[in-house]
Every structure is written in C-alpha cells, then in structure tokens.
C-alpha cells in the first residue's frame, strides 16, 4: 500500500512538473501585458502574430516544408534500408548496421559541426538545401530503428508464401510487406517530421542567410527578450501536436484493421 502511494505521488509530481509550464504558457498567451504580471484577458498577441509577424510565418513555412519533404525522403530511405539490413545478407552488413546507428548517439552539436565542415569543404552554399540534407541525414536512423523493430516481429513465412505463389520481389514488397509495415512507417514519418521541425542545434550550423526555420527565429527573438508572441505561436503548435497525435492514432487503428 505504501509503495502504491509513493508511486502515485511521483506520478502526480512528474505530471505537474511537466504540464504546469505548458499551462502557464497557455494562460499568459492571453495576458494583455508584456510581463508575467496579469493585466487582463486579451487576444492581443494572437492578433499581432497573425497580422504583424511576417518573419515568424516565413520561418514557420520553411520549417513545415523542410520537415515534410525530409520526412518523406528519410522515411523512404529508412524503410528500404531496414528491409535490406533485416532480411538480406551482404558483405560488411554488421559494419553498416553500426555506422547507421551512430547518429542516434552522436551529440547534435558534433553532427552540426561535421556537416558544416563538409559543406564548407565542397563549397556548398548554406541555405534551405543544406538544412534539408542535414535533417534527412539525422532522421534516417530513427526511421530505420522503428521499422526494424516492426520487422523483428514480422512473419517471414508470408513473404515466402508469396514467392511460392509466383509473386515477384516488387509485388511482394508493394502488396504484402509495405501494407503490414504501414503503422511503423507512419510512426517513423511522424518522428522524422517532429525531429526536423523542432531541431535547433544542427540547423543552427547549416542554415544560411535568409533561411531561418522557426526554432532559429524564436531563438533570435528570445535574445532580445521574451515576447508574448512566442507564447501565442507555442499554443498554436501545442494544439497542432494534439490534433496530429489523435489523428495518427485513429489512422493507425484503421490501417491495422
């Protein structure tokens, strides 16, 4: 009984510690004043966000485009790589597996610096393209890890049965393997989009002039003092995240059926 109470206490403490800052952020996004002192309920900062914050929306657009495109590419590469590493035998397979997982443990700052050195060495101009390349690079291992976890529970006898019935390798991939992997593929894509959208450290090193993503834009605003506009856009992003979470769960249930 005592252990249950202790566990319940730490659970409640953790939830409060995690969600209280979010609740305060939501509350003060409706504060009419610029400071933490409550001046009255107002949509002032939401109005300023939508009407006078063109730079923020430009950065938001860049973040969305890069996140979705790099998410699609990294999910495609990661899924095919996972199938190849899990089921096919080839030389240096174990070496490739180790190298593939390295970005998961390498600090972001090391990844950012190394990519910056690479782009500088080949004289590749920094901008949206370098951000896209960087995000695709560090997203692939996350997708690969998720898909491989699903493949480890996959019944390979289904694939063998398809081959016995005359299906080609491409037909088997298209009609059997990919549909059964779809929940893992969607999860990998969402992880890739999320990591790309909120990445700051790596993006900071590979972004060029005029190619600021939303995290970089928020960072530049915070250096001059926390603006309540940041609270407003943060609330919108929280709402979007909640919507995508529930939508994804519904979609995955539909695909599993």
Gyration radius, rounded? 22 Å
CATH topology: MetI-like fold
Total count of strands = 0
Terminal CA distance = 40 Å
> How many domains, as an integer?
1
Figure out the total of helices: 11
Annotated CATH architecture: Orthogonal Bundle
Beta-strand content estimate: under 5%
Mean pLDDT: 83
Question: Helical content, roughly?
Answer: over 70%
Report on the biggest sheet. Answer: none
The shape is: globular
Q: pLDDT below 50 for ≥5 consecutive residues: which ranges? A: none
How do the helices and strands line up, and which of them pair or pack?
Elements: H1 2-28, H2 44-52, H3 54-87, H4 93-105, H5 108-121, H6 128-151, H7 157-164, H8 169-198, H9 201-206, H10 214-222, H11 228-256
Helix pairs in contact: 1-11, 2-11, 3-6, 3-8, 3-10, 4-6, 6-8, 7-8, 8-11
Which descriptors apply to this entry?
257 residues; globular
Report on the structure:
- This protein has 257 residues and is mainly α.
- The protein has one domain: MetI-like fold (Orthogonal Bundle).
- It contains eleven helices and no strands.
- The model has no long low-confidence stretch (mean pLDDT 83).
């Amino acid at each position: 009984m005592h252990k249950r109470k202790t566990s319940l206490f730490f659970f409640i403490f953790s939830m409060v510690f995690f969600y209280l800052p979010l609740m305060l952020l939501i509350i003060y996004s409706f504060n009419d004043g610029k400071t933490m002192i409550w001046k009255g309920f107002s949509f002032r900062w939401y109005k300023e966000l939508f009407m006078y914050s063109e730079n923020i929306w430009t950065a938001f657009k860049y973040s969305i485009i890069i996140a979705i495109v790099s998410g699609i590419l990294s999910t495609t590469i990661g899924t095919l790589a996972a199938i190849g590493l899990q089921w096919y035998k080839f030389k240096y397979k174990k070496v490739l597996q180790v190298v593939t997982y390295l970005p998961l443990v390498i600090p972001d700052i090391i990844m950012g610096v190394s990519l910056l050195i690479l782009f500088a060495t080949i004289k590749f101009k920094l901008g949206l393209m370098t951000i896209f390349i960087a995000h695709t690079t560090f997203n692939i291992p996350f997708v690969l890890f998720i898909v491989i976890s699903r493949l480890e529970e996959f019944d390979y006898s289904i694939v063998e049965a398809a081959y016995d019935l005359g299906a080609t390798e491409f037909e088997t991939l298209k009609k059997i393997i990919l549909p059964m992997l779809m929940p893992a593929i969607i999860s990998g894509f969402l992880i890739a989009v999320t990591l790309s959208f909120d990445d700051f450290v790596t993006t900071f090193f590979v972004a060029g002039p005029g190619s600021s993503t939303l995290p970089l834009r928020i960072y530049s605003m915070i250096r001059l003092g926390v603006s309540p506009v940041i609270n407003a856009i943060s609330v919108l992003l929280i709402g979007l995240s909640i919507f995508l979470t529930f939508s994804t769960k519904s979609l995955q249930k539909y695909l599993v059926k």
